[in-house]
Amino acid sequence: MASKHHPHFVMFPFMSKGHTIPLLHLSQLLLSRGVTLTVFTTKANRPFIADFLHRHSDSVSIVDLPFPSDVEGIPQGIESTDKLPSMTFFTQFATATKLMQPDFEEALEKIPHVTCIVSDGFLSWTLASANKFGIPRLTYFGMSGYSSAVSQQVGVNRLLSGPETDDDLITVTRFPWIKITRNDFFEPFNQRNPIGPHHDFVMEVMIAMMNSHGQIMNSFYELEPSFLDYLNCESKPKAWCVGPFCLAETESTPPKVDPKPKWVEWLDQKLAQGCSVLYVAFGSQAEISSKQLEAISKGLEESQVNFLWVVRNSEMGVFDELQERVGERGIIVREWVDQLEILKHESVKGFVSHCGWNSVLESICSGVPILAWPMMAEQPLNAKMVVEEIKIGLRVETCDGSVKGFVKSEGLKKTVKELMEGEKGKEVRKKVMEVGKAAKEAMSEEGSSWRTLDELIEEVRTVR
Ligand code: UDP
Ligand code: UDP
Q1: Which long-range contacts link 80-83 to residues 24+ away (Cβ below 8 Å)?
Q2: Distance CA 22, CA 275 (A)
Q3: Is 53 in contact with 27 (CB distance < 8 Å)?
Q4: CA–CA separation, 289 vs 405, rounded Å?
Q5: CB 310 less than 6 A from any atom of ligand 2
Q6: Measured between alpha carbons, how far is 269 from 327 in angstroms, rounded to an integer?
Q7: DSSP calls for 394-434
């Protein structure tokens, strides 16, 4: 029987934009189903969250816990991985969050009738807290079903320990149409025998995820049924597929008020001129060498396409020079943008993307095909899924054909032109529009994700 109490979820996003944004979208979905929320975060991350959920202030409480101080490698005041001096500090940062456990529990104790805790997979220690209070924990694990299932199979069967070279093709036995290489993985998982602090951290994350009440997936069943069936039938715990979360925006967001940011005005102008635009962005974490940035600049310049490039390294002079050379044809943005607003803009017809899972979903929901250029984490697997499995994008050409190879300006120019003007580009554009339509159907009333979210809320209410 369902609990007599009104459903109240505790949300605890991990402190990075790529992990926080999807959980805030999920929060919006839950709020529209009448769930009330307490969102846990830290002081520095509070403004972003408060701003995101400001229209729901009656149904949301935000609790900020002190972020641990004096952690080696983490400058004081940095409370988000996208603000770290380098991603080499990621594991220290993620491990330091464990020190928040006593404060979390002290605050949790004061919240009456919590239905469940939805916390990021990286915050594995929240499982122990949930267990202490007898509250079910649902893990949010921001990966595609494809990448989760393939990584699990690779790990369990130690598929990467065999081959001689990093580019040797290995068949994933459980999904025999998928061929991977060691190059599709990053340190330490590209080693024959992965060890070290990051490996240990990921193992803890996986074990806590498997021992949790369930997993919430940012995906929809029709997108990747074979992989979601695998996760639900051959692996634990149950994977609730209730996405794409980014479509929550269309449900509850009023239209943007003026003044528009300058890049949206530039997009409007391109649309009025009947021009199409290539959007270029590599997410909030990617670290790109200056040599590679120069090759991107040259490739974009020579491709002759209109482009909007969002960059993170504001100190690089290379951008000023490029802006001067291309004039009105391109715009380089160094600020935080509303990526979804850009992707949804009618002028945007292609996306050069690092294939972070949120970016892939946002591109699908906007009907924009991808030029896949994976940079880190599970992005090479997402790129494979995009290009080979769902066929909504092409792959950028690297100088040696390998996944991690350098991309020369000519390679970028050639593949950009193929995406924007070529036959293959046409095919993937048609496909992404179909997939985008299926995503919207899944999220609309009585669609698969819609129903699953209702079932999930009902189910957790019966647990306590
Ligand atoms: N911020 C955050 N996490 C942090 C540090 C800052 O979310 O670890 C937020 C901060 O609250 C503000 C925004 O990021 O809303 C901008 O922060 P900052 O002043 O560091 O500006 P930046 O130079 O990075 O744009
Ligand atoms: N994003 C954004 N504005 C920016 C940079 C990023 O809105 O200027 C958003 C983007 O839309 C996505 C998230 O930040 O929702 C990045 O997540 P993703 O999984 O694509 O990549 P990550 O940053 O985790 O590598």
Answers
A1: 80/15, 80/16, 80/17, 80/44, 80/45, 81/15, 81/16, 81/285, 82/16, 82/17, 82/18, 82/284, 82/285
A2: 31
A3: yes
A4: 13
A5: yes
A6: 14
A7: EEPPPTTSSTT----HHHHHHHHHHHHHSHHHHHHHHHHHH
C-alpha 402 – ligand 1 centre gap (Å): 36
Q: For residue 429, what are its two tokens?
A: 């554009």
Residue 115 Cα distances to 136, 244, 271, 441, 451, angstroms: 8, 23, 47, 28, 19
Which residue's alpha carbon is at the smallest distance from atom 6 of ligand 1? 44
pTM: 0.95
d(CA 385, CA 430): 17
CA of 47 to the centre of ligand 1 (A): 9
Is residue 356 a contact partner of residue 81, using CB atoms and an 8 Å limit?
no
Rounded distance between C-alpha atoms, residue 223 and residue 210, angstroms: 23
Gap between the Cα atoms of 142 and 430, Å rounded: 27
- Nearest-atom index, ligand 1, CA of 51: 15
Positions of the chain with pLDDT lower than 70, given as ranges? 1-2, 250-258, 313-316
| The predicted structure's pLDDT at residue 312 | 83
Residue 39 main-chain phi, psi, to 5 deg:
-105, 125
Phi and psi, residue 230, nearest 5°: -55, -50
Cis? peptide before 112, omega within 30° of 0 = no
CA pair distance 184, 378, nearest whole angstrom: 8
Owner of token pair 């609730």: 240
Q: Residue with structure tokens 């074979």? A: 226
Residue 97, token pair as written in the block: 């969050």
**Residue 242 φ then ψ, to 5°:** -125, 25
Pocket lining: 336 vs ligand 2, CB cutoff 6 Å:
yes
pLDDT digits (tens, 9 = 90+) for 9-49: 999 999 999 999 999 999 999 999 999 999 999 999 999 99
Alpha carbons 42 and 49: distance in angstroms, whole number:
10
* H or E stretch covering 323: helix 318-326
Residue nearest atom 4 in ligand 1 by C-alpha distance: 79
Q: Per-residue pLDDT tens for 270-312?
A: 999 999 999 999 998 888 999 999 999 999 999 999 999 999 8
Q: Dump pLDDT digits (tens) for 345-374.
A: 999 999 999 999 999 999 999 999 999 999
